[in-house]
Amino acid sequence: MTDIIDGDAVAQSVREDLSTAIDQLADAGVQPSLATVLMSDDPASETYVSMKQDDCAEVGIEAIDIDIDPGADASELYDTIDDLNGDENVNGILVQMPVPDHVSDREVLRAIDPRKDVDGFHPENVGRLVAGDARYKPCTPHGIQKLVESAGVDTEGKDAVVVGRSDIVGKPMANLLIQKAPGGNATTTVCHSRTQNLAEKTRNADILVAAAGVPEMIDGDMVGEGATVIDVGINRVEADTEKGYELVGDVEYESAKEVAGAITPVPGGVGPMTRAMLLYNTVKAAGLQHDVDVDLP
């Protein structure tokens, strides 16, 4: 029987396990804090930020909510980031993407103090990840590691295939899987839009991470028997529903479920873990910045 990996349950476990570290910070007079900066009127972005703030409140992290008019000059966003960089009471900074077209997302990521970059996307933090000395692991790949672990899957010596090469998921996921560390030591292949014979490569995977952003591009015929399938995609497609759409992953769930040994659903799989690991990184950042040793799960 296929193991359906419950991301909501694993994320809840991570949040509960953070309580020890948060208590240790409190004993040192420190309350971890996360500043979320929204420069968008996109309803999805507004929802994501609201969910992250609710998560903070649940575990005892102070949430600082900053809204910037999407039509404002880019300098207003950069000035806001500078102020947050210099505020000792702010441990983590998250600028919700996407930003407006007149703002460079690359420059935004570079503007954040790498010590407060709890997304793990600043070039300094990317370099540390590649070097095997991560300050903060990017939230989605780190969450995937936790999901694979929760399914009782040992990555050591396994063949892993990552479909997608984004800076947010694909590249850091591959780096984590190949590292000589727990959750790594896998033989890892990265596939993308130019990959030939994709199905042949995915069928050979013991661990398959789908992160290409293409609705249901991987079906059961592309999955090896007993493989662990992690579906990062969350795509809105037209459907005969009250809302007029439904959310699907990059994996055709029903056919893949018949073959996989373990699989994440969409929604309720990777998404909750991304948010949980953001809390994890914020607590870690507070400990590092205030020189407090904390026990992280």
Concise synopsis of the structure shown:
The protein has 297 residues and is of the alpha/beta class. It is 39% helix and 15% strand.
Task: Describe, in plain words, how this protein is organized in 3D.
The protein has 297 residues and is an alpha/beta fold. 39% of the residues lie in helices and 15% in strands. A six-stranded parallel sheet has the order 1-11-8-7-5-6. The longest helix is centred in the C-terminal third of the chain and has 20 residues, at 270-289.
What key phrases describe this protein's structure?
297 residues; alpha/beta; six-stranded parallel beta sheet; three-stranded parallel beta sheet
What is the radius of gyration computed over CA atoms, rounded to a whole number of angstroms?
A: 19 Å
Number of helices: 11
Q: How much helical structure, as a percent, in the residues?
A: 25-40%
Distance between the termini: 29 Å
Query: How would a crystallographer describe the biggest sheet?
Result: 6 strands, parallel
Low-confidence blocks of residues: none
Q: Which of globular, elongated, flat, extended, rod-shaped describes the shape?
A: globular
> Overall mean pLDDT score?
96
Structural class: alpha/beta
Tell me the series of helices and strands, N- to C-terminal: EHHEHEHEHHHEHEHEEEEHEH
